[in-house]
User: What shape does this take?
Amino acid sequence: MAGKFVVSKGKDGKDYFVLKAGNGEVIMSSQGYKSASGCENGIESVRENSQDESKFEVRTAKNGRDYWVLKANNGQEIGRSQMYKTKSGCANGMKSVVKNAPDAKLVDER
Assistant: This one.
């Protein structure tokens, strides 16, 4: 099963997307976008930038768990992962974005 980008409207009125793996698990979540076109541009940026491993930045939260962010060419954060219990889980999450993002279909739930 292929991955998919799911777009939804937040309670704040902004558009958000998540990238889900073929098994339905959320791999990454976006920031809020003021417009539908901004959200769609964010998805295209994930498709493009996810193929460059230098665009991923691994961070450690205050609770000691690792997570990653994906950045665009301008250095702005496009999306971030969940918190992982292990470094290998974090690495696998990044690999899943690399695999799923380029061909993921778009599902609009707004």
User: Anything to note?
Assistant: The chain has a mean pLDDT of 94. Strands lie at 4-9, 15-20, 26-30, 56-60, 66-71, 77-80, 105-108. Helices lie at 36-49, 87-100. DSSP finds two helices and seven strands in the chain.
